[in-house]
Amino acid sequence: MQDQMTGRAAALPTTRALALAAIALEAGAAILDVYASDFAVGHKDDASPVTEADARAEAIILKRLAEYQPDVPVIAEEAASAGQVPAVGDRFFLVDPLDGTKEFVRRNGEFTVNIALIEAGVPVAGVVYAPALGMMAVGDRQHGAFEATLTPDTDVRQVRWRPLRTRDVPAAGPVAVASRSHRGEETEAFLARHGVVDTTSAGSSLKFVLVARGVADLYPRLGRTMEWDTAAGQAVLEAAGGIVLTLDGAPLGYAKRERGFDNPHFVAWGRPPAA
């Protein structure tokens, strides 16, 4: 983890990571306002749930990103669902204003705000914020990943940031982030093939954070995801020393317009897998 100016180990998140963190924090406050109310639940065309919190958070993020980087286009989940997808070049933002709406509706706290900056198909900076849990993780490629405990009125420049770093796989065997109840045969076979000795679970992009934190070693996702679901978590994990690969061993990349911005199946690894 290197500081951009000095080359020394970074002790704090970079300026751009903190900028994204402040935006996520504001969006999270709006989400918590809705979370505390008797909110209604609607459904999109694909039957996935949507609430007022999704729209309120996305509006805040789009406004703040336009102020922060007015020349950088943004692909955001709710706008994309409505067919509003801007032309993007090598540099753009990916936003999921409320990842884990099902968790939000269930009120289990495991939902997140995800914001990532993409450059040349790579998530180079990102923030994952779980407002109900008071946890935020940020990452900036080559400059480290950090997490903090905070509240909506926190100044992100003043909190105590703790470094995130992936771990070596324990001698006893790897721990995977995977659902205990809805894994499916393909995932079960993958876990067995890789000698997984235990599993843990989490909602939304918190799965990436568990691997980045070094409490799990891999997260296989053998189901459909969209780019905005994964970019911020991938940015944090890879800044912490991990890597996200498709099943054929290629890095999970972004700006896949020809696929409708959906992802192939992938595995998030704490450390690069043996060849």
Task: Compose a concise summary of this entry.
With 275 residues, the chain is of the alpha+beta class.
Topology:
Layout: H1 15-35, E1 41-43, E2 49-51, H2 52-68, E3 74-76, H3 77-81, E4 91-99, H4 101-106, E5 112-119, E6 122-130, E7 135-140, E8 144-149, E9 162-164, E10 175-177, H5 184-193, E11 198-200, H6 206-213, E12 218-221, E13 225-226, H7 227-239, E14 243-246, E15 262-263, E16 266-269
Parallel strand pairs: 3-4, 10-11
Antiparallel strand pairs: 1-2, 4-5, 5-6, 6-7, 7-8, 8-9, 12-16, 13-15, 14-16
Helix pairs in contact: 1-2, 6-7
Briefly, what CATH class of the largest domain?
Answer: Alpha Beta
Report the C-alpha radius of gyration, rounded.
18 Å
Helix content percent band: 25-40%
Instruction: Point out poorly predicted stretches.
Output: 1-9
The number of distinct helices, counting runs of at least 4 residues, comes to 7
Helix-strand string:
HEEHEHEHEEEEEEHEHEEHEEE
Summed up, the domain count is 2
Q: Beta fraction of the residues?
A: 25-35%
